[in-house]
C-alpha cells in the first residue's frame, strides 16, 4: 500500500489517539507533527536519538529534529506526500515508547 496524505479529519483522529495518554503532548505546527522531549541529561537525550534513528532507518522514515543538551525537538512530516501520513503517527508512537523506556 502506498503512503498517502491524511485528511484533516484523519489527522485529528490520529492526534487524539496519539495523545490519549495524559503525558503525551504532540501538536501540529506548520503542518508537521511536533513534540519536545526532555531528559535528565545529554546522554539520555542522545541515547533516545540513537534508538529512534535506528528504528527510523529500518522504516525509511526520518524525523526532522534537533538536540540541545537534554532536549530533543522533533518534527515529523511525510515529504513524499507533502503532508502527514500514517508513517508520521507510527513513528511518533514509537518515539513515545522509546522515551518512556529511558530511566
Automatic annotation (TrEMBL):
- CDD domains hit by this protein: PCD_DCoH_subfamily_b
InterPro entries assigned to the protein according to its UniProt record, in alphabetical order: PCD_sf, Pterin_deHydtase
Any one Gene Ontology MF annotation carried by this entry is: 4-alpha-hydroxytetrahydrobiopterin dehydratase activity
Gene transcribed to yield this protein:
phhB
Alphabetized, the UniProt keywords read: Lyase
Task: Write down the species.
Answer: Marinomonas aquimarina
EC number, as in UniProt: 4.2.1.96
- UniProt cross-references to PANTHER family, sorted A to Z: PTERIN-4-ALPHA-CARBINOLAMINE DEHYDRATASE
Tell me its family: Belongs to the pterin-4-alpha-carbinolamine dehydratase family.
**Gene Ontology biological process terms in this record:** tetrahydrobiopterin biosynthetic process
According to its UniProt record, which reaction does this protein catalyse? (4aS,6R)-4a-hydroxy-L-erythro-5,6,7,8-tetrahydrobiopterin = (6R)-L-erythro-6,7-dihydrobiopterin + H2O
For this protein, the record's NCBIfam families field holds: PRK00823.1-3
Q: What is this protein called?
A: Putative pterin-4-alpha-carbinolamine dehydratase
